[in-house]
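User: quick one
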Amino acid sequence: MTALRALVRKELASLFGAPTAYLALSMVALVTALIFFDHLRLYNQILFVYDSATMGGFASDTVPDYVNLWDSVFFPVMETLGLTLIGVVPLVTMRVFAEERARGTDELLFTTRLTPGQIVLAKFAAAYLFVTLMMAVSFLYPATAIEQGGLGLEHLAAVFLGLTLHGIGLASIGLLCSAFTSSQLVAAVSAWAVAFLLWDLSWASGFVGDRIAALLEALSIQPRYSSFAGGVVSLANVIYFAGIALVSLAAARFSFDLRRVSG
Amino acid sequence: MTGAAARTEPGGAVQHGRGVAVEAHGLTRRFGPQVALDALTLRIAPGESFALLGANGAGKTTFIRLVTGYLLPSAGSVTVDGVSPALRPSEVHARLGFVMETSRLYPELRVRGFLRFMGGARGLGGAALTRAVDAALARFHLEPVAPRLIGNLSKGFQQRVSLAQAFLTDPPLVIVDEPTGGLDPVQRGEVQALLSSLRGEHTLLLCTHDLDEARMLATRVGVLNAGRLVAEGEASEVLGREDALALFGTVAVPAR
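Assistant: Done. Structure below.
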């Protein structure tokens, strides 16, 4: 445990010692703020139009059902946030293994008391901690929308859980891609490709049979992420994201064995 | 096991009186069709300072990687203190310190922070870790630069940091790969003097292509040429030969 803790601490120090981490946190905070206020502005504009049309005396029942804080602000913000994270998280994870390999420090790390499994575990844990912090930063505005919409703490918790699991899933994909290359660029680009592909596989449903279409739907991130955004915590969705994390962890561990054989 | 009595210290580091033996039998490593190390048979006695010489691509680094367990052999075997790094790498890692080239450190970490990390990763914690780090800083004259970022240090100081981390747990086997590569003559002299002062306390496996360095630091040497051990013996005997340089042969194409 001493060795594991030492590596987690070092990973966090390395993460926060590089400008990428601050850039990623700032980017997420800025993009979320822009998206949130843009949708809020549009929502207010629509309300203003109804207000003007009824000479300033409209009641809530004169506004169509589809014009509400929920559909006009919260859902679009969450959707764009999910996509933004696909762009940002691989920028944070790309260096985790690839940089070690590129500068040869992976060999130094290998000669310590840390087993390959512990190295992978510590690096994943540090990345997950960072992603959770990133989610907390990005959650501020959706939380405001939920609070203003009067949806309650349970819904708030479900959305934060979904957001964090989505971030952990993306971090796992990013770490896996980083474990098989010494190029940070290759790690980031391959993580983007895999994550965007997994985000919504339903576009391919029209080209395949029903059973494969159902499988593609089951493998897509977007419907599961949206389910959390809707306030639903489903065990299947939690298992899905945990599955991505476990498969990535096992594959990253395997990359060490592969390197011992292939060099 | 060798004749050296082994005991386990707090933190799990295995301590020995005067180092441990490294033995290779028919050790072979191939990368595809290329043979990087060809049936190497070698014994480094406990407490001995052994230099493995050879041109770039001769197979020195491959041998080190097989000893640390970073690579698996294609054929043959290697053991450290009777333990196979291929099968039980963690047990071998408890017995060794590893000094890499200067560029292979963490430039974003501060010297003390890096040593604390490496000590922790080698199983030291609490007061034992603080004591080991302070001792290493003093032993390698690093106190003045302890709060500085590694990336901002000269190559000579970076190599001292690399040496300091390898000796944190006072391991019985120290592997040093090209310790003075890229250093200026003054820095090279400092690092060689430090390594020279450590002789006899540990088994030292030094990989270099510098004949003078091998003469200064090693009691025995082996010469690798295209993956084959072409000479082995007392340093003065092998390096005193008229054809010593010719043993290096044609510079091989690096396997990796």
